[in-house]
Design goal:
Blueprint lengths: L2 H28 L17 E2 L6 E2 L7 E4 L1 H7 L16 E4 L8 E4 L15 E5 L2 E2 L13 E8 L13 E7 L7 E9 L3 E11 L4 E12 L3 E3 L4 E5 L2 E14 L2 E14 L24 E2 L6 E16 L3 E19 L4 E3 L2 E5 L8 E20 L5 E22 L5 E26 L2 E22 L7 E5 L2 E16 L2 E12 L2 E3 L9 E3 L2 E14 L4 E19 L8 E22 L2 E14 L5 E2 L18 E2 L11 E13 L3 E12 L2 E2 L9 E2 L2 E12 L4 E8 L7 E5 L5 E4 L4 E9 L1
Length: 748
Amino acid sequence: MHVATSLRLAVLAASIAAALPLGAALAQEAAPAKPQQPAKTTELQTVNVTASKRVENMQKVPMALTVLTPDKLEAFGQSGDTVLQLASRAPSVYAETSYGREFPRFYIRGLGNSDFDLNASQPVSMVYDDIVQENPILKGFPLFDLAQVEVLRGPQGTLFGRNSPAGVIKFESVRPSQETSGYARVSYGSLGTANAEAALGGALSPHWSGRVSALAQHRDGWIDNTFTGQKDVLGGYNDRAVRLQALYENDGFSALINGHARWLDGSAMVNRANAIELGGPSFVPGFDRYKVAQDGRNKQHLFSWGSNLHLAWNLGDLTFTSITGLERATTYSLGDVDGGYGAVFHQPMGPGFIPFPVETADALPHDRQITQEFRLASNGQDKLNWQVGAYYFDEDIAISNFDYATFNNHALDGYAMQTQRTKAWALFGSANYQLADDFELRAGARWSHDSRDFKVDRVLSPIGGGPLLLTAQPHDSRWSGDLTGTWTLNPNVNVYARVANGFRAPSVQGRVLFADFISQAKPETITSYELGVKTTGMDNHVRFNADVYGYNMHNQQLTAVGGDINVTRLINAKKTEGYGAEFDLEAYLTPNFVLTAGGSYNFTQLKDPGLAVAVCGSGCTVLDPLNGAGNALVDGNTLPNAPKWIGTLTARYGIPYGESGEFFVYTDWNYRSEVNFFLYDSAEFKGKPLLEGGVRLGYNWDYGRREVALYGRNITDKRAITGAIDFNNRTAFVNDPRIIGVEFRAEL
């Protein structure tokens, strides 16, 4: 670890240690003392969610959803994992990236978008503290001091609207309160993996409360570059984030102010040239993930910040809510795309055959997003509850694309600038009515309008094309909504049937360094049918929810990435079909043994006989039929990054020791079946089935308010191909190795 970084972490740890006794003193003055012997939880607690934009018991919300609690998030993210830690942690949820720590791509029920451009739209909407994070860079904000994460599966076209046909992932921060509370976590592990996290909140006055949360994550470089002879030069990062909140409450009115920021410096994605063996999705003999041989550069920088204001007026029978959000971001990411060295002027080339060097960078010099939502909702009516609202979205972004001549001292030989202004507005309403004691009907509708103004200006092309100026102005307006019936069979069992639709607005892609055109995708629409059951039993010791679903999607927006023409373009598939089944289980098997599990089967299939895409540019075995132009016909293929099977399991066993202590062991495992990386099917560009696990062994005391633990992530040291680049050679992305460390946590 660098000396400066060590000093920063040491100062942060010392600040945390100093804050804890200060916070304890505040707790004695500003809030009632905590009980000396808190009752140990030995049954499942009610989980409240805001999936319907009002607080409800999860078991009463008639849709497929999973809640991830803080203890799970802390375990999953112990080794510094990003938001990608959510991959395979809930039924039907998968995630991947080709951009390192700053650009996650999520998939629900097989639906997602593999586009890597900085204006890419995704069908999985990510909502952080009620603010949609539209740009892919904003979606990577770190997870810390969260109350919970809600995963809503299926179209959310009524309350969330645009760009949510696959589902929504909602992140809820711990809100300020009058009670003083806080915590601190520090850990250190292999590869110089260090994490420090802390939060402190409480009363500022009788009507004001506040909370401050901070996170610092670090890893040393751990990958050698054998071409330059540099040791431990790649794979490291410094990722920092902070959140400040202030809450005012008085006489039925509340105002919550939130400010947050993130700073990231480190490696971009590390590409591995010809790491995939010809003829199958395996590593080549002798592959070593601790080494690369690259003649290009690699670095990544990100700064993002935002603020939002939540205002709510309780008017007796009604509540009026206003939510205003501002998000901004800048980033620069540079990488050796071919993943190796040589070709053209470097001889010999390697590793393997590399026809030409590629060193590219993308920058987001400007990203500004403004959102505004107004809602008027009924309060606690006996039979009828309703809400209506209006929504406005305004995004202005600029993107710079660079290409560098590696063989000519990294000289700039390609440059283009994209700009995009997106404006959208919507009117929506929903209602639920208790038609009978055992039957409730819910319905909702939304009218949305979306328009974009896109321009790309190419100044220089690495393949000899001259200056180029292209524009596009796609727009769309349409209805979306849902209808759900819920039958209460008994107080512990609900059965529901839901039909819902959604859409994704038109998209534009303008990466013109290697092409003379821009591509556009028409709006995609989806209609989904879902039948589910929600149950609790064994005196509230077991909670089991399950559902089956099916959907038809028309004009699905897909991205044909790379291929032998080295052009990324948007396309539409005429029809996509999907169906599957999902379940969630939580159980107290004994007072000291808690088990959770989830799983899904997801089938997807493209239905478009004429849809064809370019295939790999160098050395792969294409399994699809080819048309006369040599492109692969992908009709009948599964969607990319859409595993059929996903499974997750956690288990915790505690052994009480002394008056207030406990030894414990916690383990979590997640599984996904094989995935195809691209639209076309090949023998090489796949990810084999992957099972990864983590473990915590520790001791807590003072009724759980102090804890020390040993942890391990990827404890079997599984080595897996997680993604690929296909236009130049069989370039692979690789998962992180095993991380083992120690952690200390303290709560006020």
